Amino acid sequence: MRKIIHVDMDAFFAAVEQRDAPELRGRPVVVGGDPGGRGVVATCSYEARSFGIHSAMSAARAYRLCPQAVFVRPRFEAYKQVSRQVRQIFLDCTDLVEPLSLDEAYLDVSKNKLQNPSATRIAQFIRQRIFSETGLTASAGVSYNKFLAKVASDVHKPNGLTLVTPEQAADFIAALPVRRFHGVGRVTEQKMQRLGILTGADLLRCRLEDLQRSFGSSGLYYYQIARGIDERPVEPNRIRKSLGKEITLAEDLADLSQILTILGRQAEQLSSLLQQMESAAHCLTLKVRYGDFETLTRSRTLIESFDSDVEILALAEELLKKTAAGQRPVRLLGITVSQFNQDIPVADPLQLELPFP
Hints:
Structural class: alpha+beta
Radius of gyration: 22 Å
Number of helices: 13
Helix content: 25-40%
Number of domains: 3
Mean pLDDT: 90
Distance between the termini: 48 Å
Strand content: 15-25%
Number of strands: 14
Shape: globular
């Protein structure tokens, strides 16, 4: 049986800002875009969350909820630096570290460098070192699989530690609202509720064939986690399946030349990343969101691989012609490349760099 820890930094971006600017401590801090523009909230302090502000909310709505909030532009280099410090603390305990983003990771400490048989004590040690070395707090969940460890890390946030033993797992899962299950989004939650599935206990009563009929390939996953079964290992060298760049525009655009200019910049960025990683892609996906929030994607897969900005932009322009861009105002543009010549390991955790116009 594995011993898994999930560590999640508390309000990470906002906490770094409050640490580095003491005058922000105790105040509602929102890291993200200009509330007078069309940016979004990347994260916010717990003081801001008490007003109902949350990640991915528009900055304008966040301002309406809390006009006294302090809006701070993100400093990704500062966050990456702290993330590297935290990662080293993890690696001092075990080589089996799977980063999920800049601010969270799974650790398998079944065998560990501290020679400590207690995963809970290792989690305490990690949290203490994080605070001592960075001045920031982290919450942790400890259990025998990734699903339970991740859910547990959120139970006593912020600055908490929760252990779910094999003996406690059944009761713990039974009491969970389905929205707390990793992989259950808003749409799936609503569908489950219509089927009378409100908690883990309800999910446990469902037959596998019924779940597969209602949720397709995800049915088996829901069936297993309701029973505390999650065999996924901690993967220290996760393989990146795609690279993407997207931007939410400050103003809706209908001018094709301006749209192509933006796509050209994204093509240059993706080409640079591919060449740094000594790889090339076979598939390109263009994402377009119109001013009325209708979103569509168009993809093209080639037999020959590509890695230059000229090739990427040419493909993007070809796909753009299959949209109404230029006739309908565009709010968001994005390019993603995938199906690489060689798998690209995730050497450093990358947080999605949301646009903050």
